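Problem 3 from the worked examples.
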Amino acid sequence: MTDVARAELLSPGTLQVGINLGNILLVTGKAENGDPQGIAPDMGRALAERLGVEVQYQTFATPGEVADAAERTIAAGLTDGPFEPKRAIVIDFCDPYVEIEATYLVPAGSSLQTVEDVDALGVRIAVSERAAYDLYLSRTLQHATLHRARGLPGAFKLFVD
């Protein structure tokens, strides 16, 4: 297995690791040398060590940018990103290594009290463009309207008004 994996690397001797900087649960900061820190970069580094190769991080602001990079890259690499059927067309996903739950943020006193209440006519949901939340809600919402925005802060991925 190791020889096969090593032979498929984009750059011989280097594992390219795409890192989504938009999730503070997976990437918590930067080291003095500029490398990302957190569970996602740690996993990439551990895999590179196991393969006996160097690790090189490529950082992206959003999961959508990571998916775009994966589409452009023909050879093997590694990236962190949420499973989504649309992305599975071009990305081979492993089993999940972490589950991050999400819910909606609504104004105080809102009549929206359950997740089911949110999918109603006239409800507008702001979501970070091309994040897993966007892809999931695009498939599942039947009545509410999605408003996609670039660069929403991580704490406000799903904001309902």
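Problem 4, a separate protein:
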Amino acid sequence: LVDLLKLGSFISTPMREGVANPLGLTATDLRIVLALGGEGELAGHDLSEIMGVPPMNVSRALAALSERGLVEPGRNRTNRRRKPVRLTDEGQALFDQTVPAMERVGADLFKGVPQRDRDAFRRVAAAVLARIGRWGA
């Protein structure tokens, strides 16, 4: 678990410097763009849970992203309490730019790691993430 905690802490630097900063995003902005780009329309509390970020930070980031024209209210407005957001076309274009940026960061971080070890890492990470998602249930 110590190595997992270190990984969780230290991955933020290459993601910030290699992906977020070049795209003009904060680390929280990047997480939101990645979550919405990968999951689709989500409410602020969903984003807070997925990202492990306090709701106030998510709210501020959503306001800034909205001001920049990167997110907009979602289509599902049947529940007046739940206020989902989604990426705008411009936000989707920005999300699309994160893919090659993350590939560059990943290539650097995994340089020299054999493909079989990368595949094993991906499987183990997926298994641990699934268990974390059920923690306390």
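Solution to problem 4. Residues 22 and 66 are 19 Å apart (CA to CA). The beta strands are 42-43, 71-73, 84-87.
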